[in-house]
Amino acid sequence: xxxxxxxxxxxxxxxxxxxxxxxxxxxxxxxxxxxxxxxxxxxxxxxxxxxxxxxxxxxxxxxxxxxxxxxxxxxxxxxxxxxxxxxxxxxxxxxxxxxxxxxxxxxxxxxxxxxxxxxxxxxxxxxxxxxxxxxxxxxxxxxx
Length: 144
Prior knowledge:
Number of domains: 1
Shape: elongated
Radius of gyration: 18 Å
Structural class: mainly alpha
Helix content: over 70%
Oligomer: single chain
Number of strands: 0
Number of helices: 6
CATH class: Mainly Alpha
């Protein structure tokens, strides 16, 4: 494993994957903490356990939850495409542009989603989408 991480493209992927995993972990944790602080839970059994009556959904919590869900839907495929691409003999410079663009755009997308910033949320979403699509296409090119 240490030898594999000495490969610059694989190391770059690992760094980006770590940043993206932290992004998902932090936004998911923020949602959970805010639920406890505001007493707005996700299921009826949570309310019963806490001895409270169900409340209406909290828009801030729901926004954070949607940002987390969106991250799961788009970052997980990056993990599945990025590593094989890094291992496929990809050019470091091309991988750098794709991985760093995707990572930066996804982190900024999360921030823009939570803050409700349009058109930035959509712009960051598309930048990340394009980077992921190009990565997948180049992976297929490298393998075929």
